[in-house]
Amino acid sequence: MSRKGAIFKISSYSLHDGPGIRTTVFMKGCPARCLWCCSPESQSFEREIAVNTSTCVACGRCAAVCPKGALSCAFGGTAVDRSKCDLCGNCVVACPKDAIEIVGTELTPQELFDLVRKDEPFWRRSGGGVTLSGGEVLAQPDFAIAFLDLCRSRGIHTAIETCLFADTRTTAEVAKRADFVQFDIKAISPELHRRLTSLDNARILDNAIQLLQSDLELLVRYPLVPGCNDDEAELDALGGFCSHNRRDVSVELLPYHSMGAGRYAALGRTYALPDTKPPTAAEMERAADILRRHPLNVIYR
């Protein structure tokens, strides 16, 4: 039996996850804890209950059907005792506002393929395909390899998005099955990277070198987070690192945003950067100018 993968979302008609129109599969589970993570539901490998505080009306119907007494309602919304919740889903059915969801499901590679292939007409017309994103693709390598092989056997263009936190063999085995690879570098400085993500970046940079020196089609992405990783020395080090290992490689600057902050409340967590603002147009141009000191194809929106 094929190993199942943990998935938390499938997005059709994606335009920024590789060439053409794509179907992006978001895998659940990630070793990093980036301070700005916009998808906190992607971090845990386990299924979770989420309550949308903006739509919950605290009607009490969810609490009435909860067999474990894990839910309580009061003025201001519904509270969840996650130590009691067994994710039975009764509350999801009872909620009249669709404010509660169980995040995460397990699928075999074939089951996932059967779900996404309905978008095939869009892929064919636009030169698109399927992208495995995260969470972290490399944290579920057996599933990723089986799914990518299945897509390739049907002539479907494949891409992966990864933070590269895995051993070099795993990275190579998954990456070589993709037609296009996008990977993030959050910081070059090891100390800064640990502070921003909780991870050491030695293996990430080793994998980045391996990919940059390969013949794979790829894109380097750098989330620009004001006050975190936007200083000149860090950006200059990024430019030097990338251009040294592949001249004229494409590096995309991704402006920080806080659109996922509400998901933290839904999962009973606290967002780490509540006061951080997105970079201005001038700040984006400044960062791009620093990277342009090096022979790179710098992209930003």
Describe this structure in words.
The protein has 301 residues and is an alpha/beta fold. It folds into 2 domains: 5-45 and 104-300, TIM Barrel (Alpha-Beta Barrel), CATH 3.20.20.70; 48-103, Alpha-Beta Plaits, CATH 3.30.70.20. 32% of the residues lie in helices and 23% in strands. The protein contains 11 helices and 13 strands. A 9-stranded mixed beta sheet has the order 7-1-2-8-9-10-11-12-13. Strands 3-6 form a two-stranded antiparallel sheet. The longest helix has 14 residues, at 232-245. The model has no long low-confidence stretch (mean pLDDT 95).
Spatial ordering of strands, largest sheet? 7-1-2-8-9-10-11-12-13
Instruction: Give the low-pLDDT segments.
Output: none
Distance between the termini: 44 Å
CATH superfamily of the largest domain: Aldolase class I
Q: What does the radius of gyration come to?
A: 20 Å
Biggest sheet architecture = 9 strands, mixed
Supply the helix-strand structural class.
Answer: alpha/beta
Query: What name does CATH use for the topology of the largest domain?
Result: TIM Barrel
Instruction: Give the assembly state of these chains.
Output: single chain
Can you count the helices?
11
Approximately how much beta-strand content do the residues carry? 15-25%
**Based on the structure given, which CATH architecture of the largest domain is correct?**
Alpha-Beta Barrel
